[in-house]
Design a protein that fits this description.
Blueprint (H helix, E strand, L loop, with lengths): L18 H14 L7 H5 L5 H12 L10 H14 L3 H6 L6 H18 L29 H12 L38 E3 L14 E3 L1 E3 L11 E3 L2 H4 L11 E2 L5 H18 L3 H11 L1
Antiparallel strand pairs: 1-2, 3-4, 3-5
Helix pairs in contact: 4-9
The chain binds a DNA duplex (21 and 21 nucleotides) through helix 3, helix 6 and helix 7.
DNA sequence: AATTATATCAACCGCCCCGAA
DNA sequence: TTTCGGGGCGGTTGATATAAT
């Protein structure tokens, strides 16, 4: 059965957006804000589907989109987050300010996945390809057919399968956290939640996107689980936006300054290492903490 | 220079979640 | 409680760019 399409696509433009359409959409959203995507095209004078408008805005026109190549730091973070979260691109994107889920997804599929394979690592399981895979069900079965009619049903049945594992309670994914609402905040203010605990990637000289100062949030670990290695890992801004704002107690360690990413990675490594020893328990608790 | 193969990524699709009626 | 619709997600496509022959 399925839902009716979001709009009758009759008479609507499709394909690449023209500069004029971009301008119309941008001006409308600047004046009226995001949302009401279905009615937006008509009001904005666009012959586009509402979903198309939303996608264009989210993935291309938003003022906080970070242009330029993915830096090695981001690169590494994506890999590690993918190991924890699987193909939940919006969640991963929520940890990479200025990056979109679509961009990360594309980057994964075109670069990282191949790189991992070339390094002898299964990009789905993040284990060595020679290792038997057991107990990890998050990776989905890849479709091999290119027939559209088949693939969609096939995919959709798999799509949620890894999210609802039989032996585990159902996890409802949170909406991804956009770092800020960009209409209300100028770009430079987007990540000023804690200027002393951010890492300036440019400072690392890692071939970033050029002129933009990109600051990643530092991360806060809650080391109060059994052996103090895993626990929570959330972006600082998430205390306001993701973790219900107020009653989130966790700052047992706050990494600040230039080494925060390195420390973060070390913790990740530790977590991944422990995964082998502790049958995924800590990893899952960590991953689920991101989903709260 | 022309052709073919491969890589990239913006855009689309269909499904699901969740809040409102 | 059920239905409906908006919004969001992940998978995939296809046009374009680039590299290789």
């Amino acid at each position: 059965m399925g839902r009716a399409p979001c709009c009758s696509k009759v008479g609507l433009h499709r394909g690449p957006w023209t500069p004029r359409e971009d301008t119309l959409l941008t001006k409308y959203i600047q004046a009226h804000g995001e949302g009401h995507w279905r009615s937006l095209p008509k009001k904005a004078g666009l012959l586009r589907c509402g979903k198309s408008c939303r996608l264009r805005w989210m993935n291309y026109l938003r003022p906080d989109i970070k242009r330029g190549n993915i830096t090695p730091d981001e690169d590494d973070l994506i890999i590690r987050l993918h190991a924890l979260l699987g193909n939940r691109w919006s969640l991963i994107a929520g940890r990479l300010p200025g990056r979109t889920d679509n961009e990360i997804k594309n980057y994964w599929n075109t670069h990282l996945s191949k790189r991992l394979k070339s390094q002898g690592t299964d990009p789905n399981t993040h284990r060595k390809l020679s290792e038997p895979v057991q107990g990890r069900t998050r990776s989905r079965k890849k479709t091999t057919t290119k027939h559209k009619n088949n693939k969609k049903k096939h995919n959709s049945s798999n799509k949620r399968a890894f999210m609802v594992q039989p032996e585990k309670p159902k996890v409802h994914l949170p909406k991804p956290v956009r770092v800020t609402s960009l209409l209300s905040l100028p770009r430079n203010e987007s990540f000023e939640f804690n200027t002393t605990s951010t890492t300036n990637l440019e400072g690392g000289g890692l071939g970033s996107s050029g002129t933009e100062d990109v600051q990643l949030p530092s991360y806060v670990f809650n080391g109060d689980d059994q052996n103090g290695t895993a626990g929570f890992l959330v972006g600082v801004h998430d205390h306001h936006d993701l973790v219900n704002g107020s009653d989130f107690e966790c700052q047992s360690h706050v990494f600040t300054g230039e080494n925060s990413l390195e420390k973060l990675y070390e913790e990740y490594l530790q977590i991944l290492k422990n995964e082998d020893d502790h049958d995924q328990v800590q990893l899952d608790s960590f991953a689920e903490s991101l989903l709260i």
